[in-house]
Amino acid sequence: MSTPEREVEPTTGQQNETPVTEVFVNEKSAMDADEKAMADTPDGGEPTEIEKKSLRHIAENLPLSAWLVAIVELSERFTYYGMQGLFQNYVERPLDGSEGTGALGMGHQGATGLTTFFQFWCYVTPIIGAIIADQYLGKYKTIVLFCGVYMTGLLILVCTSIPGALANGAGLGGFIVAILIIGLGTGGIKSNVAPLIADQYKRKKMALSTTKKGERVIIDPALTIQRIYMIFYGCINIGSLSLLATPYMEMYIGFWSAFLLCLCMFIVGTTVLLLGRKFYVVRPPQGSIITDAFRSLWIMIKNRNMDAPKPSWQAEHRGESATVVPWDDHFIDEVKRALVACRVFAFYPIYWVVYGQFSSNFVTQAGQMKGHGIPNDLMQNFDPISIIVFIPLLETLVYPLMRRMKIPFRPITRISLGFVVASLAMVYAAIVQHLIYAAGPCYEHPMACPAAMVDGVAQGNNVHIAIQTPAYVLIGISEIFASVSGLEYAYTKAPPSMKSFVQSMYLLTNAFGSAIAEALTPAAYDPAILWMFVGVACASFLVGVVFYALFRHLNAQEDDMNALDADDYMPEAPREEERRESKN
Q1: Which residue blocks in 493-528 are alpha helix, DSSP H?
Q2: What is the pLDDT of residues 380-410, one digit of tens each?
Q3: Number of domains the chain is built from
Q4: Three-state SS annotation for 126-168
Q5: N or C: which end of the chain has fewer CB within 10 A?
Q6: Residue 248: is it exposed, middle or buried by C-beta count within 10 angstroms (0-12/13-18/19+)?
Q7: Pairing of strands 461-464, 56-58
């Protein structure tokens, strides 16, 4: 287990402060011997190309600090899914209980519109958190800041969901204010916690090693990052099992009690974050790094050449008129690698349209069937349960077996498979919807005919709610391939100084997916929604096929792109030297 690294405070760039170059030199000299050894590939030296192809690749175990970050994410996702999973009922159904437990009574389309907007907002705000982290505060301090914002929104949600507040008309206004503030908080956390957990692992280069059984193997940092994000995603879904409790609290006590539980759990996670500070590897922000990245992109566009921002290219092609730039050639290689990731991410919105169905239209679909005592929003738990079951199976059995058999399963392949499995989930959902319409008593208009009323409460058609389970399971499996691989790709392809920003670009695709889903809201009515499911299924399948055809060549470049981080590039130092030269 590696020793924690102390935090280095960011510099302001003023003349009377320690030069940035010296800060980085001091930081490197302060590294403990075992940390430096790990970064330098100590075990058995760096493998040759022949050894890379012939020896088995393995992943390392996670350091303690990575587990602490995972616990923080677990508590945040417990809070997020525990409340967000109730929003459809909270907004759709009326307070009088005529359709089951509800609060705002805005109907199916109104509920789908507001919950989809909340998802959209939650995935736009990561950009704000990323810029604050990468340029000003660093990941850790930014997470702490937005935890405070998040708790403020939760407190408003709890207070305005109390029965007295709902009866006096505070529900809708309080809900809108709460989701705006909570969305800002979760975005600021989400863009930083995913790269923070991977920052806890310090090895950058492959290393030869020998197992206890005497087998020579290669310690592969890429596989360790893959393992980190598998465990990270598993913790996310353990947290999302809060939906095992909150629907029953909603049904038997009230929405306010479920939202209060979420607030209490979030306070626990924030406490762990604060108390565990000394264990974290905390890297300083890099000043104007994002500004420099956009400036380099403009030079690429203007010159129609991706190498144009490189100082070497400027010197060769511009001579004395070369543009003075505050970076080196390696930084431009990193920006180009980040652009590859962003191209890959461009296909994700269609996937997120499918993913978003499980907390919106799937909840309504479950309410159209016979519940047999099961709350309709409880069914969502089969998504995280499937992930919790399949992640260990893949990580301990399937993936190691594929590596032993020398069968590559690179990120692009995994993402493509995720798209296809997601399309199967929507096909199954369409079949379930057809079965609902084929059953009585209300057929194509569930819960909307007099025969559906039992003791003053509308009941669904004569289809058992459990039949919906495979749709959630298929979405969960698709997440393991598409969503986990996306997190991994966003981290490994981002420049070291722009991890949060590139992560926010990946999360932004979820916002675009929510925007597409928002545009589909007019089709969220019976019986048209069946054909919406069919259309989304076809779109996800086609995108998966096209995605693989366009990007499968990147699988062969995976190791080379990941190796760029191993050069220990520190962009602040060249900027400081450039300033000194310009002064002279």
Answers
A1: 499-519
A2: 889 999 999 999 999 999 999 998 888 889 9
A3: 1
A4: HHHHHHHHHHHHCHHHHHHHHHHHHHHHHHHHHHHCCHHHHHC
A5: C
A6: middle
A7: unpaired
Answer yes or no: are the C-beta atoms of 387 and 234 closer than 8 Å. yes
The two three-digit tokens of residue 208, written as one number: 């030869």
Look at the pTM and tell me if it is higher than 0.90: no
Quick one: tokens of 297?
Answer: 């992109």
d(CA 214, CA 535): 54
Place of tokens 């919950």: 115
Domain that holds residue 208: 54-288+341-562
- Using one digit for the tens of pLDDT, what is the confidence trace for 559-572? 777 765 554 433 33
Q: Are 41 and 32 in contact (CB under 8 A)?
A: no
Share of the chain above pLDDT 70, in %: 88
The arithmetic mean of pLDDT across residues 299-311, rounded, is 89
Task: Report whether pLDDT(574) > 60.
Answer: no
Give Cα separations from 146 to 84, 116, 164, 272 (angstroms).
18, 22, 30, 15
For residue 180, what are the contacts with CB-CB under 8 A and spacing of at least 6? 121, 153
Run of H or E residues at 202: none
What is the b/e burial string over 160-195, where b = at least 16 CB atoms within 10 angstroms of the residue's CB? Answer: bbbeebbeeebbbebbeebbbbbbbbbbbbbbbbbb
Q: Is residue 313 part of a domain?
A: no
Give the rounded distance of the alpha carbon of 9 from its chain centre.
Answer: 27
The distance in angstroms from the start CA to the end CA of the chain is: 47
What is the reported pLDDT for 29? 39
CB–CB of 451/440 below 8 Å?
yes
DSSP string over 261-283: HHHHHHHHHHHHHHHTGGGS--P
Q: Using the 8-state DSSP alphabet, how is residue 460 labeled?
A: -
Domain-embedded: residue 34 = no
Q: What is the CATH number of the domain that holds 262?
A: 1.20.1250.20
Structure-token pair, residue 226: 């893959």
